[in-house]
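Q: What residues go here?
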């Protein structure tokens, strides 16, 4: 149980990745073993992971540890060559590579490691102008076979495969995405593009469709482990531990406000042209035609906020009603509700339960606040030496993906939940 941080050399072969020469710079259980020598562990640690962003881990390693204990020199800490692993109860939370170091006045060594996803935001690649399958077919097939020239290539996997990423941590695998399956993307008119894999993922996937892009780690036999890139419509991993009012929920705030693109009523203006008669007797008449779409429940609650849509060409009321509804679906029609709360991970007080965790779904229940639902942990800010201060951020499925699936709008659409590990509060 507890946290452990290791740095050193990562190697790989056909069986997966494994540690070469490595050094433990923090072990939360290291000083609790009878007879064990106290170690000057890494200080000022901060592990930050956020949905659809490249995470980081930073710390300061005391001189007594990196030089006196391990006999290392400052030049041994080579950027992009030294890797880092953060573990929690034998599960891997983070893997990254050194991108910044700084020798402090007391000869402590500040180290900053970038999450392994960062290797896909370093080097440029070419993206050819052609038609693509956005991610894969509806059944999950045809996402990694474009090299065989079978049909239209997968844009998502082509970016993953062609990225000029290097280093051992670039040897990660990938799974078939569950976002926007069966959708085509035609880039024929955009010309040949140059950019990093991460910039293309942002442009064509995360900015447009959101979703959950992250890496997961799997331990294997004989010290091997794998890193897998995932891009998912929803998170299916759940925790048995809940966050509940009167138990581990310590504080909560609910804020409700109208979003900037709020609209619950759209009117589409068009024209209809008819012609009667023949030759010199022909008469042409152009009439205005209106179509509309209204969210009655939203309008009754907040009043009507209207947008106009001007449509060229010959129109009918039915076609304008359809266009108005399509336009209305692009707007937020309910107030945004955000929930900020503080709680603690019950595993940190010795309770036999699983942990709250990044990219896991947890049930949050607070009767007095009318909150009862499953929320995905989309962000953590962790100090392994002080788990009581861990900050967890939870949220509903992304609004863009909710609209993709069935356009069902719930009262708590867009809810964000902040959970802070406040175990120390209990001891006040």
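A:
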């Amino acid at each position: 149980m507890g946290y452990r941080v290791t740095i050193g050399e990562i190697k790989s072969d056909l069986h997966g990745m494994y540690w070469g020469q490595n050094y433990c710079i923090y072990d939360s259980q290291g000083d609790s073993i009878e007879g064990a020598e106290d170690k000057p562990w890494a200080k000022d640690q901060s592990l930050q992971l956020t949905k659809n962003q490249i995470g980081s881990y930073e710390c300061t390693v005391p001189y007594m540890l990196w030089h006196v204990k391990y006999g290392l020199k400052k030049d041994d800490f080579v950027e992009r060559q030294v890797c880092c692993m953060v573990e929690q109860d034998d599960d891997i939370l983070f893997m990254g590579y050194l991108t910044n170091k700084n020798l402090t006045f007391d000869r402590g060594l500040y180290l900053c490691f970038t999450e392994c996803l960062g290797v896909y935001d370093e080097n440029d690649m070419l993206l050819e102008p052609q038609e693509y399958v956005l991610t894969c077919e509806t059944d999950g097939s045809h996402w990694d076979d474009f090299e065989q020239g079978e049909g239209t290539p997968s844009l998502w996997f082509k970016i993953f495969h062609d990225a000029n990423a290097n280093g051992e941590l670039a040897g990660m695998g990938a799974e078939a995405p569950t976002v926007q399956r069966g959708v085509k993307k035609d880039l024929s008119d955009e010309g040949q593009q140059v950019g990093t894999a991460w910039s293309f993922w942002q442009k064509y996937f995360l900015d447009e469709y959101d979703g959950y892009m992250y890496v997961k780690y799997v331990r294997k036999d004989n010290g091997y482990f794998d890193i897998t890139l995932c891009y998912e419509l929803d998170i299916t991993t759940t925790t048995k531990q809940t966050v509940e009012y009167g138990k581990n929920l310590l504080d909560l705030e609910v804020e409700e406000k109208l979003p900037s693109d709020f609209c619950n009523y759209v009117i589409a203006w068009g024209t209809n042209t008819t012609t009667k008669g023949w030759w010199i007797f022909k008469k042409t008449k152009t009439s205005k035609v209106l179509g509309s779409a209204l969210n009655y429940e939203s309008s009754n609650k907040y009043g009507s906020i209207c947008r106009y849509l001007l449509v060229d060409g010959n129109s009918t009321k039915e076609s304008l009603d359809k266009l108005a509804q399509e336009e209305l679906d692009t707007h937020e029609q309910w107030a945004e509700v955000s929930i900020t709360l503080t709680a603690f991970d019950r595993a940190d007080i010795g309770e036999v339960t699983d942990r709250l965790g990044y990219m896991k779904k947890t049930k949050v229940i607070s009767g007095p606040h009318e909150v009862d639902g499953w929320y995905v942990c989309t962000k953590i800010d962790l100090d392994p030496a002080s788990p009581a201060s861990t900050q967890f951020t939870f949220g509903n499925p992304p609004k863009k993906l909710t609209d993709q699936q069935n356009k069902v709008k719930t009262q708590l659409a867009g809810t964000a939940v902040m959970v802070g590990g406040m175990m120390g509060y209990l001891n006040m």
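A: Context that may help when evaluating the design: The chain has a mean pLDDT of 83. The chain has six helices and 24 strands.
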